[in-house]
Amino acid sequence: MKKHVIYLASLLLPATIMAQKVTFEEYDLNNGLHVVLHQDNSAPVVTTSVMYHVGAKDENPERTGFAHFFEHLLFEGTKNIGKGKWFEIVTSNGGSNNANTTDDRTYYYEVFPSNNLEVGLWMESERMMHPVIDQKGVDTQNEVVKEEKRLRVDNQPYGSFLAEIKKLLFTKHPYRWATIGSMDHLDAATLEEFQAFNKKYYVPNNAVLVVAGDIDVVKTKKMIQDYFGPIPKQAEVTRVAIKEAPITKEIKGKYNDPNIQIPAIVSAYRTPSMKTREAYVLNMISTVLSDGKSSRLYKKLVDDKKMALQVGAFNVSQEDYGMYLTYGLPLGDTKLEDLVKEIDEEIVKIQTELISEREYEKLQNKYENQFVNSNASIEGIANSLARYYMLFGDTNLINTEIDIYKSITREEIRDIAKKYLNPNQRVLLEYLPKEEKNKEKS
Hints:
By secondary structure, this protein is of the alpha+beta class. Helix content is 44%, strand content 18%. The radius of gyration is 23 Å and the shape is globular.
């Protein structure tokens, strides 16, 4: 009921009135584990989460898929949690849990009734200190990951478009491969390679622990020290910054997807790190172009001209580089090149004309509401606290990020579009149905 009341109020009142500061405390254990605590005693629920600074970009190019594989593997069991018992323990204590992996980080979390906080802390400390990485577990999860790839990529319409874009957009940086990686690489890996990957990255000094919700701070700190304090610090993870040369000429590509009947056209531009102000501006540009049915691209190409079944633009924010993408699925006899021309026209308008005061006001309202909603749940707050610390180096962005959006001007929107969204700086991918072989001529 509480969530519904908050949501209704956010519709009726200005977002700035509803936005409340998220209070938190952060500190480091002697082993390098960073800890963030957020106390909210309004409901008897607590989230325990650990984010590791390891993602697909940290993999050996000949062993892609390791980070995503470990997302699964580290649920197999530990020295004190039997094989297959992880989920049983969580559910029997009234909890739920999940994990996810990106190119930049891996995130594990549990949600428990607050009287079972200690269970969550014990389980995450077990995952960090005592994981059992043996051949049986590797073989089991290998099959799980293969099935996931079949469902989400191989047999999913348009399931490979991002992977194909990344291959063309990046030539040196490890963002060039898909997060799910190569099944051949996983098959070829030895048990010792998996164990070495774990020892290097899933360590306290490469992680942040967030505890958010109905907690007693003093008691929680003691439990954290008891469970995580004894875990030994490991060698610091060192990363080499890999730079890409600027794209100065349009890169064209084609890909045939056996799962589709309607082609798509995708433009992709390499953009700066999520930590830059420019990345925030690019988020706003994508909102102007394609957020909702009143957005420029949807209104023009779907509603008015009826040239597209679907059209959009979005900014993929990542730690080292971003990707700004536009896409369109043609309607009827519309040609892909005509869709590109129409989308480009709308980008040129943003590059040469200031968005209207009304559009600017709508933008600000959307981002304020988005900011309020992102902090409306304990799970969301825990995730944000971990992400802002780990990837931005500023945990307090959970409170101040909205100020960045509010300070962005219409002139900046025009100038950043002009700087990054030009045809000579992009990949243009024709995403096509699979060609019929030996098709008879009529």
